[in-house]
Amino acid sequence: MENPNNPMEHKFLVRPGEEGRLDKYLSSNIAELTRSRLQTLIKDDAVQVNGKVVTKTGFILVIGDEVLIEIPAAKPSELEPEDIPLDVVFENEDLVVLNKPAGMVVHPAPGHSSGTLVHAALGAIDDLEGIGGELRPGIVHRLDKDTSGLIVIAKNEKALNWLQDQFKSRSVEKIYLALVDGKPPTPTGRIEAAIARDPSHRKKMAIVSTGKGRASVTEYATVREFTRHTLIEAHPLTGRTHQIRLHMAFVGCPVAGDQVYGRKTPTVDLQRHFLHARRLKITLPGEKSPREFIAPLPIELQSILDTLS
User: Fold this and answer.
1) Which CATH superfamily is domain 76-169 in?
2) Is 181 an active-site residue?
3) Which tens digits make up the pLDDT trace of 192-204?
């Protein structure tokens, strides 16, 4: 593995059939970097053609041109690493699969300048190569603060791009366990309802009419019925903010403990909503077949189930 603290040089000779735009040529030859990242490097004087610096991304290469690009060492993140224990489900040189606890925010944001998953990852991952020229973890997808379960962190740009492509193509399978109030209209179902930012509440999302928000689809299946609740598996086919919580509330069965989209007085003795990212099926960088990862229910959620009848 290359030392991430040292700059890296790539040299190329343009061959027949490869002539054309400089940024496109580099993108086809350096798979670990996005085209936008390569365009930034070109503009930052990091690329030479035939010994001369070229700063135009659309510079046209011809057969026989010699191209040199120097990828600078990743700069340290402005965020301070924090010694926060993490539940690592799987790790290799490209990524980490974590079981995130409820109560942990993924990204730093106003009001959450420390104690986030990103701070914890900076302190826990020794071989982080960086994203976008900065020594920081690549967050592929997110979980709400009070949602526990599986989340993937990329260690380098190649892995981040690989994983993001799967999420965009919807080839990743994410299965959540949720305890909802009442019973869904049918034991299994598919909810299609567009989601957009709530115009009246900046921190909330809302179900809106088709065309006014982003298309959102969730499939669900009943796992177990209780007197006043139902345990379901939810399979979001899209990845909108608060999607499962909104969709289940939309069909009259809000997630138990969800005081934002559900009942203001919780129907269970729980200081969070009952939503857990239990299963994740994803293909790892360089592999052809998907792998499945499972995170068991946290003790506080299992204890709730044990008390229901």
Assistant:
1) Pseudouridine synthase (3.30.2350.10)
2) no
3) 999 999 988 888 9
